[in-house]
Amino acid sequence: MLNHSIKRCYGPECEDVVCTGRYWWLFLASSLVTLAVGTGLVFLVRFITRLPCLNRRRHHVAGPDGSGCCAGICPINLLEKNAEAEIHSIEAAKDWATRLLSAQSRFGRILLITYFCISMASYAIYVIDTGKPIERCLPADRGDLLFFIDNIFNFFFLGVFIFRFISWNDKFWFWFSVNTLVDIFTIPPTFVSLIISRTWLGLRCLRIMILMQLPEILQLLRVLRTSNGIKLTSLLTIVAGAWLTSAGIYHLVENSGDPWINFNNSQSLTYGQCIYITVVTMSTVGYGDLTPKTTCGTIFIIFFILGVLAIFASALPEIVEIVGKGNKYSGVYEPVKGKKHIVVCGHITYDSVSNFLKDFLHIDRDVVNVNIVLLDTTDPDLELQALFRRHFTKMRYFQGSVFNPSDLQRVKLNESDACLILCNKYSPRPDTEDSGQIMRVISIKNFNPEMRVIVQLIQDHSKTHLLNIPSWNQAYGDDVICIAALKLGFIAQTCLAPGFSTMMANLFAMRSSSEIHVKVVKDDPTERVVETQSVVKNASSPAETYLESPEGWMSHYLHGCGNEIYTESLSRAFDGMTAPEMVKECFIKLKLLLIAVQQNNEFDETEIIINPGPYITINQGTVGFFLAPDATEAKRAYYYCRACHSEGVEVEKIWKCECKECESLDNNHAKKYTHKDGHKLLAMTRLGDHHEPAPARSPSAELAELKIQGVNLSESSDHDRPAYDFTGLFHWTPARTVEDALITSAQKRRYLVNHIIVCLFGDESSPLIGLRNFVMPLRASNFKYEDLRTIVFLGNIKYIEREWDKIMNFPKVFIYNGSPLSRADMCNVNVHQSAMCVILSANLGDSVEQGLQDKETILSSLNLKSIMAAGAHSRRSKIIAAYAAESPTRLNGGSIKRSLSTQGTPKITVPMITELVNDVNVQFLDDDDEDDPDTELYLTQPFACGTAFAVSVLDSLMSATYFNAHSLTLIRTMITGGTNADLEEILAEGGELPPGVQISRTRLKELLRDRCTVAQLSIGTGVFQQFKEGAAYGSLFLHALESGILCLGIYRNLIIAGKSSSKRYVITNPPQDFDILAGDRIFCLKHFEDLNMNKEIPETALIGSDL
């Protein structure tokens, strides 16, 4: 090593003293020797502690426990007999050091923060010293303040190092940890400086590595609270630590020069220039203005590019993603003054949100002054982002979790009007999906117990957990939309009144007439929706109209699709009227159809009365449920004034008038339903066919054997003593076992006539669908017992056994173990003589392609059609057709339909309804409809005819429930057959349906007093006997109203291009001048008390056996 002759400066003007000679190797050697000696000592201690084990293994000496020496480090107490006290002292010291350094204690947190601050101060001193020579002597006559402070810091680091050494269990990994290496290369050179009175800049830049502990420090100080913030800080500190440390090493080697050429090639670079070089190198730019001059610097840059560049390249995309994401979907929602907002969470996808928005922001809702705030944990995909841009004035998206109170605070949940929780209706694990939904409700109610929550659930039994939430209260507007219950209720009512499910599904879905017209024209430019009524008037007969207008049926159907259910406060002009008088006046003058009213009873509870009778008087505050094309037309009932809107006023001009009588209407309009009003439902419905008196039976023996009336398969019968459940709402029977309900013998199968077949595809591992929701509407107590149709479940018995305990108390329910895809099994349950065949979707979730999601139901549907085609000319079919011709009124309900083909051959068609998971698959159900996958479900022929159903039609219930919860109650009642708080509680508990021990005739009449039935009455029979083909629908409506019957629509034969068909389609609320046809059936609400209750109800209804 050469000594350079350097001029020494001792004057006060000289800040530093430059020494002759280089002793850098002494500073570096102190660190390397410390590292090597420490490593050797660690291995030596490990060897000594394992030596007794090695000896014992060599001499086969057993350990203290008699098990021999185990692999690994042997306990220290094997070295000395009296080592227990020493071990206890060591463990106590280790525990004390661990508690001292732990951030869980206050002292540990203070020590950690102090260590970080002192490390940063030591690094700041290093940055200042980079402006001085790399190696220099300390002044003899005066001290160096910064050197003195840095020595104090290093003694502090030494103390912390000792505590860390004691607390660590594995000393080897401790010795090579990052913090230990930093201490080894910074602390020993301090002692060398004190001995030789000179200092070396060295590797003191390593102190900046303490930056990697910055996220932990900020968490302790509660500065960082989100995962994104912690991750972003960690990435930035790693990049900054590597960047600044590398700059310090490069500064050292370039300012020192290469030692093998006597440091002659050094260059003077500041620390800032070295940082610039590392940044340029990390970014792979390399301008070339500053380059390494030493060999050591060149070698370092090579390794720097291989190491630090990899860190930079991997961290930068994550940093950009976090920063960009945080700016876009983080932040706090700022409520708009004068506007309410709702929070929507749960299953947030493009399909779920678009379906929700389509109904929530529909133009028919008038002005929707509500903003929508979406909250979800995932990043929105491109389709969802495009949807946000289209509705940016009405909708905001925030990324967060409903389980995080800070995220709920960000979306201002406390200030929101309601919280809507969407579910994944197609989830292959419905129980798991429902559990997540209920946990979201718990989190929201925990944040704000008074928040109104509307939640979607798949399974009906999941409602049990909602009842366990103390703050769940329907009086505050909390409501649950059970997908399975409503879906199966729709399908069940279709078994009794074909097409009614289509009518109800269209009523609560928002569709405007202009929207329907645009969609039809868009699908087929050559097709136009004709104004059918004008054509009918010019035609010689309605039948000729259909021959001239092949698309006339679509025009009629779409006219009904434009109607929805609206609620509106009634004008004071109706005060004092009876309900039928008001229905008549609304129908004639306002062109509105009133189907129910809402009033307060003597207990100040809200009642909903469906098809109110003459005993209901309209008073101030009454709210009506109307069928109307939009909310504007429904407001006619609110603004109607007898003084201003006389007979000559056009219906379009009925609006707010200026007379004194109507000035107070605005004050009364506030009495409309608010979600904090409790309600009690009085009106409940039964959907079924109105059976005319049965004609005399044919004396033929074969016809007697194949009697159309459903036969009970039980050997016992007692038709004089029906039994009901404890509420009186449903027929009841003692519990039966699966074996009792299993159909095995041919003797039992031969009596299956006019029954309902339910095809199931589940197995022992499939999710339950809740068959009780299907059976209950079909076992309502306002059916006569002899009118109950037998239900046969065709499927895997292992699956049905899992749900049997929920349906074992309902009469006339049986099981057949088989497969719906088997022709033999379908024939064994007499599908030819069934009233309805229901094909329920499996939805097993094992199909990736959408077209395969409904493969079982489509194949079963095609299988059934093939069976019908093959058996159309069979002997049994001809017998049934002959019976149908002999007594056509008997088959008015549509159990076995008779039609004449062009050759006059009888054709027997069994009605069926198929459930679909994917709407697009409806194209595979019918051969004579359009196969356009872009056509919406409600525009397809199977849905218009009531032969197809998909769960997607229930999407609009969320927005309908938000705007008026009584609408959901109305729909639920008309679909499920009735509700009762006590019954809901019993069913939620999962117990057996209790019987009504003894229900008197008087009590049963009280229960059924306000229940009405939905009937399909034929033209030319019964109440409509005087009406013939070509009569006006308005005249028929008013005539039926005089008898207490409220007409809803028409179920008409489908005639396309002059060809007759056994299919029918739904026409909802046709105009008054709409012409009726001879084969029409009228949907109507008929009072149950009009039936002859005294004859069909015994004096007491006791518990009975399965009749």
Would you kindly provide a written description of the structure presented here, covering whatever features stand out?
This protein is of the alpha/beta class. 41% of the residues lie in helices and 12% in strands. Helix 15 links the parallel strand 6 (418-422) and strand 7. It starts with 23 loop residues before the first helix and ends in a 5-residue tail after the last strand. Residues 1-17, 61-82, 518-550, 670-712, 714-720, 880-906 and 1090-1107 have low confidence and may be disordered.
- CATH homology superfamily name of the domain at 711-872 and 911-958: NAD(P)-binding Rossmann-like Domain
> Can you tell me the residue ranges where pLDDT is under 50 for at least 5 consecutive residues?
1-17, 61-82, 518-550, 670-712, 714-720, 880-906, 1090-1107
CATH architecture heading of the domain at 711-872 and 911-958 = 3-Layer(aba) Sandwich
Instruction: Tell me the distance between the termini.
Output: 115 Å
Class inferred from helices and paired strands: alpha/beta
CATH class designation of the domain at 711-872 and 911-958 = Alpha Beta
Output the number of helix runs: 41
- Write out the strand line-up for the largest beta sheet, numbering strands in chain order: 5-4-3-6-7-8
- The gross shape turns out to be elongated
Would you tell me which CATH topology of the domain at 711-872 and 911-958 applies?
Rossmann fold
Q: Could you give the topology of this structure?
A:
Elements (H helix, E strand, L loop, with lengths): L23 H36 L24 H18 L4 H24 L5 E3 L7 H23 L3 H5 L2 H7 L3 H9 L1 E3 L13 H7 L6 H30 L14 H12 L12 H35 L10 E7 L3 H11 L9 E7 L5 H9 L4 E5 L5 H6 L7 E5 L7 H18 L5 E5 L5 H5 L11 E4 H14 L3 H8 L5 H11 L8 H7 L3 H7 L3 H10 L2 E6 L9 H12 L2 E8 L5 E5 L12 E6 L2 H4 L1 H4 L25 H5 L9 E3 L3 E3 L13 H5 L32 H4 L4 H4 L6 E4 L12 H7 L12 E5 L1 H11 L5 E5 L5 H6 L7 E4 L15 H16 L4 H12 L10 E4 L5 E4 L2 E5 L24 H4 L3 E3 L6 H7 L1 H12 L4 H8 L9 E3 H8 L3 E7 L14 H10 L2 E9 L10 E5 L12 E7 L5 H4 L3 E3 L5
Parallel strand pairs: 3-4, 3-6, 4-5, 6-7, 7-8, 11-13, 14-24, 15-16, 15-18, 16-17, 18-21, 21-22
Antiparallel strand pairs: 1-2, 9-12, 10-11, 10-12, 19-20, 23-28, 24-27, 25-26, 25-27
Helix pairs in contact: 1-7, 2-4, 3-4, 9-10, 9-11, 17-18, 17-30, 23-40, 36-37
